[in-house]
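Field: COMPLEX_INPUT
Field: COMPONENT_COUNT = two
Field: RESIDUE_TOTAL = 594
Field: MODE = joint
Values follow.
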Amino acid sequence: MTGVATSKSSPWSWLTDPKRRGPLLVAPAIIVLFVMNIFPLLWSFGLSFFNYRANRLNVPEFVGLRNFERILTDDKVWDRFQTTALIVGSSVVLQLIIGFALAMLFAKHFPMRRMVMMLVLTPMMLSFVSVGVFFKFYYEPTFGLLSWVVNLFSDETFVLLATPAGAIAGIVLADAWMWSPFVMLLVLAGLVSVPKYLYEAAEIDRVSAWRRFRTITFPYIKSLLLLAVLFRTIETFKLFDIVYIITNGGPGSSTETIAVFVYRMAFQNFRTSQSAALGYIILFIVIVLTNLYLYSVNRRAEEEAL
Amino acid sequence: MARQREIGKAGWWHTLGATVIGLFYFFPVLWIILTAFKTRTDALAIPPKLFFTPTLENFKGVFFRSSVSGDSSEATNFGLYFFNSIFVAGTAVLIAVIIGTLAAYAFSRHPLRGNDTYLFIILTTRMMPPIVVIIPIFLMFRVTGLAGSYWGIILLYTAFNIPFSVWLVKSFFDELNPEIEDAARMDGSTDWRVFFGICLPQIVAGLAATFVFGLILTWNEFLFALLLTGVETRTVPVAMARTIGGEVGVDYGLLAAIVTLFLIPIFFVTFMLQNQLLRGVTFGTVKK
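Field: COMPLEX_OUTPUT
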């Protein structure tokens, strides 16, 4: 009892009140995030209603929604969104296929499985810059490995990055190589959760391999596959470093993803307030996707609980 | 290991196939490492050389460049860049994990009003493209003079790691059995002691995993570092990108040596964290 009494009289008592414990513990995290994320975002929200260029000393001029109007009617912006969608779509599909195949390989035990799996998981842990360096080296027309392989079959010099389609393929290949192990991990998690007796029952009933997959395996991995697709879509949407290193958006602007486009707009052309407006449009898309992702995470948790 | 019992054993062909494909998948990394040990002519040889006399020239070249006049050699800045990468990532992640653990404990044990909303906002700050937030941060750093300083980039990386730390550490707290904590409280333990004496010791491995994951994410980060570090605070990824940006003949042997040095910590981490990898890369949203 005395303990309660003293703590009440102490000047710190309002702080140590159990009711305030939650907010107090969360405060440092929220403060840092506010200073470095939320406040800057509010700033750029304000900025998106002004005409402002960071390389000039002019006073920002209020222009209302004109920046958003310009961005949304700009053909270039739509073109870059299409490029991004193409790269994200093909890369995520490729990751699903490769990741799934890899998971099938590692779904069984064999000697040195842990070692071999570590080799496969390494790309995921590399920096985008390193992966960019790898593939730029392999795509090099004169001494790159890829050109060498192609030259075994044809005499022409093979320059993958010279055509828009080739450049996109080059980027997609690098990104898919890096992130397929991620899908593999998720699929493996699903495969492990399939009760073994279902397979044994299927064996007795002589069910075909395809039907076994469709009726037993797939239901167990489908929620994880959905998570993989959403997570990879959100992440690939940000694709910047690999493009910056391998093609720098070229040839022309054929591999310029929306992230590279915003970067150029903000830091090379200094259309600061317009890039802030475009940033907000991107942010909106990401918030929608993140919502979908968390929704699927929660639904999966509920399914597991049943 | 319950997991090991649930999956079957592979036959010989499966084992062979998996090993070959695993090696093939790793080949791009292996080839870069081999390139790092080649002379300039060997590195660019066509057909590619699988067997060659290894040399350490490239690794020497990362840190020392022979000056034009001849035999004396001067140090390059890469020593500094490696130090910067380690120092900046280490400090930022340490602060972020401490702050994140406190918040994670609150989110897990003392839910606030609107708990899920806070968690959602926190995750969104991590999911959004860095390019969106970098524009105002760039302006902010210019005004406050933080651009190019250690403090600026450390503060930014702390914020970058907090969402990830909160979510990941929360997933570890959520797995603990709260009855043990309740029992301790009944026995008269203060909340302080419950947190430090009972909760934290149970998740030490998880905290270590969070710290190391954060290190890797920060160690690999490029865009923030590109825009917000100066000559003195430059990190290795930025320095690598600048090396490749040189239009006149990129020295791939040298670049391969830098990448190889940059890889070493990553091999250790991937090996150590193999069982936590899935949880780490999904920020704790997928546990198993």
